[in-house]
């Protein structure tokens, strides 16, 4: 009954000062909406990055050939030539490895008629397609027979098709890689940009044996993509690969330097989050400023309400109301203002997230955190900024309060 009576008093008081109440609600709503949008934008960015990483391949590690400095003054470096197909065979035999794909790559000129352009020639095996989640729009991928027979066959990326064939599918046609003819056997579906800004759409995929012997003239690999059987197994696989390569490359002495680098998707994820950290801090600062202004607005409205209602407070105390009743009443009014502002802010923030993600294409997601956290913050604002006016009202001397009526 006491809470119901306090609610009635609070609604009547707010109804008498509608304009001030509306301003206070609006101030809180702006801050809450900013927080909701911030959380939604962060969740959307994480989901977009996770989706992109999944498109690159699940539970994937890249074992890259290390580099050694050849000119310290100019910062020049040269790739080690110690990563080989034997290493690939040893890695793919590890029990926690689902599949492994070797890569030997380099830039070469691709010529079609009178058109010529430089693309990345990538020699690999059939495992590459599944490990990196490539899809075909036409033709087939390279197979084991292509590897064993050193066949001169090629699978073209979407950018190659667009730049040299103007969107046509040249299946079965000959293309010159350097001075050597290759038969086009497949066309890859476009993947778009990777999280690091690079693209896989400008690649020409050929059998790794053909790339090493007939195109690049090398006997080593640039990298090996390794897919673990599960996410928990990634760390184990990374340790096993490092131990295996150190043993096979003869680095069993103290203070050795690895001639390889192992990069996981978690490192890429940390890099992307670090890059977006500055923007997030700026947005968080703006949201905190908006919340602070909303809280100050609530404080000002509550103090003014207490000042204007001295006579009412004195009369209630004179007829038997206790200080805690006055405290609860004014705290209830602050909670009502803040909750109404919180509800409005959550609705506005949710609308911005939905409209922003559907119309503008921004990476935003309406998650339970984007709804729950701002609503809880609105309660915190009511307690923090509404407590002082409520305490001031509860501590009023009834005689002084009645004289001011």
Written description of the protein model:
Strand 2 (67-71) and strand 3 (76-79) form a beta hairpin. It is built from 14 helices and 12 strands. The chain is of the alpha+beta class. The chain folds into 2 domains: 2-52 and 275-403, no CATH class; 81-258, no CATH class. It is 56% helix and 19% strand. A 6-stranded mixed barrel has the order 4-5-10-7-9-8. It has a two-stranded antiparallel ribbon with strand order 2-3. The mean pLDDT is 78. Helix 2 packs antiparallel against helix 13 (368-394) and helix 10 runs antiparallel to helix 12 (323-360). It starts with a helix and ends with a helix. The longest helix has 39 residues, at 18-56.
Q: What's the arrangement of strands in the largest beta sheet?
A: 4-5-10-7-9-8
Mean of residue pLDDT values: 78
Shape estimate:
elongated
Q: Low-confidence runs (pLDDT<50, min 5 residues)?
A: none
> How far from one another are the termini?
28 Å
